[in-house]
From TrEMBL:
UniProt-listed Pfam families: Acetyltransf_6 (PF13480)
Transmembrane segments: none
Residues covered by the N-acetyltransferase domain: 32-177
Keyword Transferase: yes
Molecular-function annotations in GO: acyltransferase activity, transferring groups other than amino-acyl groups
Keywords noted in UniProt: Transferase
Protein name from the UniProt record: Putative GNAT superfamily acetyltransferase
Lineage, top ranks: Bacteria, Bacillati, Actinomycetota, Actinomycetes, Micromonosporales
Annotated InterPro entries: Acyl_CoA_acyltransferase, BioF2-like_GNAT_dom, GNAT_dom, GNAT_N_AcTrfase_prd
SUPFAM superfamilies, A to Z: Acyl-CoA N-acyltransferases (Nat)
Amino acid sequence: MISSSEYAGPGVTHVNAVAFAHARAAAEAAGVAVRALTDLGDLDQAVRLFARIWGRDANPPMSLELLRAFAKAGNYVSGAFEGDRLVGACAGFFHAPSEDTLHSHIAGVSPGLTGRSVGFALKLHQRAWAMCRGVDRIAWTFDPLVSRNAYFNVVKLGARPVEYMPNFYGLMLDTVNGDGDSDRLLVHWSLRDPGVTEACGRPGERRPDPALTAGAVVALGTAPDGSPEPGRLDGGTSLVAVPPDITALRASAPDLAARWRRAVRDAMTDLMARGATVTGFDRTRGYVLRRDA
């Protein structure tokens, strides 16, 4: 459940009310209560949760002091609770005054709740919270090699990648990112876009649209031995494959994981430099990039 008092803003419009209803339905479906975090005890739970998820007990991705300052300054800090236990958290901050974008810096869900759509509930709470404050867009980054995150961001939420950023954070050295380059895709989530509204109102698995990949050429595929296999970069619609589980691959075959990093980076940056944009993600074929004629 979600408290409507969290959505105090410039006014509750019909569109905002729909966003609120979608957020509430997602939280109920996930079996969690999502709310803003302001109490020191709750914020400390979030710090410890992030530390467990990223395997950084000695150096958590977020400190208590920073989360406290974020919340006090009116930024977004929220948590998903199963009873009294915090099982997911998300924090973001506002861009420069000339922009209306909220940057969603970090979000994580306890590994034991995988498949419960707690992350979906958190993002829909963030969307409703932002919309009721007059924000039209949320931005964030994610590792383009993590296929489950690509599917979640591009398909389930309807966000659109706008920039490929090689080694954005530098060396991170945690259990999520490993010890390789920290490439990121920057995505923009247009909160009032009809496609986003439709995606947020349709929880569950999304079936790929055959029209999305019709006539597509393979810019990067997967060879029979599981290695990246470069293809053509001249298609109007192109497909860029990613490994099915990069986390497992980093542990079992780090050299191959590094080859995938370089291959995806080369294909994506080349295609985007030629004017292609990411328009979708297929679980079996990878990113779908389309270049307008």
